[in-house]
Amino acid sequence: MGIKELINDILTTYITLVTLITALLYVLGSYFFPDAAFGYEGFASPLIFAAYATLPNLLMYSRKELTTKSYIIRKSLQFILIEIIVLTIAIPDKDVYMNQPAIVTALTMSVFVIFVLTHLYDFFKNLVSAKRMTAELMLFQQKYKN
Fold this sequence. Notes:
Layout: H1 3-32, H2 44-54, H3 68-90, H4 101-145
């Protein structure tokens, strides 16, 4: 992955993460803290979490094409780093009761679900792009074949 692809990946991942984190905060907040209210600073938390969660994308930068084994290792490290980052940010937060095992478990599982959903979105986006490029290539070949 080159630097341009990395920057594009980080920006796409960031936008996807902000959306998914906002939805997650709504779901978990409604379940664990249905009576809680927050001020305008609450709008910043998805932006902050997403910014920190995109930093491990730098692990995927390589000048050469990654082998399958190195890709899996880097993705695993990326997931572990994201879990560590999110828990490190959330634990000292005075508004989140991290001493409750249910909340820690929900947060950890939510990070996993968001990680998977983000990668599924990226996979399907790339699949659509590849199909479009293949169709364009087929048209190009037919045009110059005749």
